Amino acid sequence: MIWLESILGLGLVVLAGALTLILSLPALRKRKVVFRAIPALQRARRALGLSVEDGSRIHLSIGKASIFSPTNASALVGLSTLERVAQLSLISDRPPVATSGEGTLTVLSQDTLQAAYRIANVPEQYDPERGRLTGATPMSYTAGTLPVIHQERISANLFVGNFGPEAGLMAAASEHENAFSLGASDALDAQAVFYVTAEEALLGEELFAVPAYLQAGAIYQTSLRVQDILRWVVVGLMVLSAILGLAGVSL
Amino acid sequence: MRSPVMTALAIAAGLIVLLGYLIPPEWTSLAYIQAVRAIFIGWAVVLAGIAAWVGVIHLFLTHLRRMTARRDADRYSVLVVLAFLVTAAAGMILTPADPRFQQAVLAIQVPVEATLLGLLAVTLVFASMRLFQRRKGVMAVVFVISAVFFLLLGAGLLMPLQEMPLPGALIGFFERLPVAGGRGILIGIALGSLMTGLRILLGADRPYSG
């Protein structure tokens, strides 16, 4: 049965890849895609704009997921968000700061910031201090991030990545500083904690929509459309398997 | 413009690792892909170790700079730098496997983390009390009711009801609700993760500068 799972997995990847390529074709991309409104992300965009205008800093925490762990996709979303935030705040007096709880992520966050400034032809704006490892364990990461939130004139804190319940302390610190906070995590416990402590929280797979809603590029919007199609495919397969199960057919 | 060579290398390595996972082990003619995948993962693990070391050195240097800054020097950075130096020296002399070293580290780490957890519990209680100020609507009400209900259920206070036929069936239904909801969310997250990985495999998303 292992081979059936492998083939199904391979099939899903190929289907997703094919759909991404098809929906990326210029003829199909021209059509205006309207996504449902996510108020949390609308407020996040507004908060980012206000931060740039008033010269305060944006803080992006990209979590503690190792790039080799199954939760690394959330970290990659965090990095895409960081790139977009760096682009949006190019004209700001204070460049954004990124904190992470894993060495690989720190190196990647510095690299992402450097690439964003280089592509925008302002490589001199890059400061490696802006991508920081604040702690190597979940609690030390949280404890190390708290001074960043409290001391660096942060007006918007975005928590986008893999977090544990301890992220509630960071969101509470943000509220204490009257800063905007958006919590987006792939961990269920962190989602519940963010719902209570953060100003805005993203639930479920909304985390993966962050770059698309921040208009990071057409590919993110295509990716979101494919994700919606795949969701219907999975729903169809679940219904089919339930019907087959009721009919006494075992797979 | 990002380097096309780096992008090509990343795509090739990603494809080989992905195929290594998805090709059934029964297909022995493609076993070499799994061998290459194992080599790549071995390299990646070594690189991750180096990256962790780079991150820690960066953390140390950041605090060293803050400690010695002429304006607004950070006093707490002195503690971080001293703790780092003492721990690193003790770890090198005694080795991390030494029980005395482990005991010393845990004697500091465990109480500090326990304190933070206690702080988190208080923070969450206060945040829950203010939830209705922040969030209006049905979702907040549902959230609070389910939190209280599952707290009671988890504490075993509804145990006597579980033995009665109708309440017992209802409680059984409610016990399955979070599992079903959690699975739904996890399927969504899995699809999101798949698409994130695919963007990198297609070279559309590059979390590396090259």
Kindly describe this structure.
The complex is a heterodimer of chains A (251) and B (210). Chain A has helices at 2-23, 26-29, 39-54, 72-88, 103-119, 138-151, 167-176, 188-197, 210-213, 218-246; strands at residues 57-63, 97-100, 131-133, 154-162, 180-185, 200-202. Chain A is an alpha/beta fold and 251 residues long. Chain A has 2 domains: 37-216, TPP-binding domain (Rossmann fold), CATH 3.40.50.1220; 217-251. Chain A has a 6-stranded parallel sheet with strand order 3-2-1-4-5-6, sandwiched between helices. The termini of chain A are close together. With 210 residues, chain B is mainly alpha-helical. Chain B has a domain at 130-203. Chain B contains 8 helices and no strands. Chain B has helices at 4-22, 31-67, 75-94, 99-129, 131-134, 138-154, 159-162, 165-201. The mean pLDDT of chain B is 88.
Quick check: average pLDDT of chain A?
Answer: 90
Counting DSSP E segments of at least 2 residues, the number of strands of chain B comes to 0
Strand coverage percent of chain A: 5-15%
Largest interface: A-B, 76 and 67 residues
Order of helices and strands of chain B: HHHHHHHH
Largest sheet of chain B: none
> What is the overall number of helices of chain B?
8
Please, what is the average pLDDT of chain B? 88
Q: In the CATH hierarchy, what is the architecture of the largest domain in chain A at level 2?
A: 3-Layer(aba) Sandwich
Q: Tell me the series of helices and strands of chain A, N- to C-terminal.
A: HHHEHEHEHEHEHEHH
| Overall body shape of chain A | globular
By CATH, the superfamily of the largest domain in chain A comes out as TPP-binding domain
Proportion in helices of chain B: over 70%
What is the overall shape of chain B?
extended
Q: End-to-end distance of chain B, in Å? A: 9 Å
Number of domains of chain A: 2
Structural class of chain A: alpha/beta
Low-confidence stretches of chain A: none
Please give the order of strands in the largest beta sheet of chain A: 3-2-1-4-5-6
